[in-house]
Structure formats: structure tokens, C-alpha cells
Amino acid sequence: MEDESKSKNLIKMVRSPIFLGVIIGFLAALLQSLLYSAGGPEAYGFCVACHTRDMVDDLINSIFGTSLVVAPFSAAAFAPALSIIGVMIGALIAAKNNKEFRIKKANFKGALLYFLGGIFVLIFALLLGGCPYRAALRFAYGDMLAFIGILAIALGVFVGTRIVLFQMKKQIEEEAK
Q1: Alpha carbon distance 171, 148 (integer Å)
Q2: Which pLDDT tens digit goes with each residue over 73-106?
Q3: Is the dihedral of CA 111, 117, 118, 120 positive or negative?
Q4: E strand or H helix at 77
Q5: Where are the domains of the chain?
Q6: I want to staple 95 with a disulfide (CB 3.0 to 4.6 A). Which of 74, 101, 135, 165 is the partner?
């Protein structure tokens, strides 16, 4: 009985977002040190914005013969930074395994807002110099502008959460009538 309760507690701990966040943080730091020791740039690590930019720029350069800027580490790699594709595939597999995958029906306005929101997130991430992972790495190197970016991201998440909660509350009230 005691072994079964320890097993359940271990499974509960492993599934905790805090535990997983700590593990992912340590793995990201380890991978960053390996990338840097392999000649990669400081604070490149796992950056969804930068890797997406590099992947798209490398693809456009290959197809059209242009010379869009690709990070030196991605340019020297066998293939461009394909981590964003791995994240999308991993998210799809996780959603399917946890039975959380569903296609959300939206009207044109809602779909357009999601699309534009994604574009603005990527634009502002690139203006910041990367995504929150890279901002945290830059802050660890002493860049105070990255800290301001992290605060702006936190404020954006707070405001966005409040908007979504307000919309959900409004929808529940309308359904109750």
C-alpha cells in the first residue's frame, strides 16, 4: 500500500507544471552551454521567434536565391533551426495523448484576431531580441533591457488573461439567460 501511495505521489509530482518547468529550465541551460561550447552564440538556446525567423529566411534564401539574414549558428548547421517544427509536432502529440486536441470553431473575425495576434507576438519578440527564453538568457548575462522585456511580457500575459476571463464570464452570463 505504501509503495502504491509513493508511486502516485511521484506521478503527481512529475506531472506538476512547476516540476516540469524546473526540469525544462535545467535542460535548456544545459543545452545552452553545449551550444555555446560548440561555437554557438550566447543566448540563442531555444528561441521560438529566432528559430522560426531562421527557418523561414533559410527556406526563402534556398528557393529564391536571396540573402536574408540567418543566425550564424543556424547557417552553419546541417539544417536550419527546425525546433519550431518539433515543438508543433510535440504539442500535437501531447494534445492527442491527453485527449485535449480539438479544432476550435471561430468566425472570420476571431480567426483574424488570432492570426494578427500571433504575428504581433512574433514581431515584438524579434524587437525584444527573441522570445522569453532568450530574454531570460540575456538578462542572466546582465542585459537590463531584457529584464524590461520580461516585465512587458508578464504584463501582456496578465492583461490577456484578464481579457479572456472577462469574455468567459460574459459568455457564461449570456448562456445562463
Answers
A1: 35
A2: 777 776 666 777 888 888 899 889 888 888 878 7
A3: positive
A4: none
A5: 1-38, 39-176
A6: 101
Structure-block grid coordinates of residue 80: 536550419
The three cell numbers of residue 54 are: 531562421
Radius of gyration in angstroms for the set of CA atoms belonging to the chain, rounded to a whole number: 20
Residue 28 pLDDT > 80:
no
What is the pLDDT, as a whole number, of residue 65? 93
Q: What is the DSSP letter of 79?
A: S
Q: What is the pLDDT of residue 75?
A: 76
CA distance 139 to 111: 34
CA-CA-CA-CA torsion sign (30, 52, 148, 144)? positive
Kindly state the average pLDDT of the residues 38-57: 72
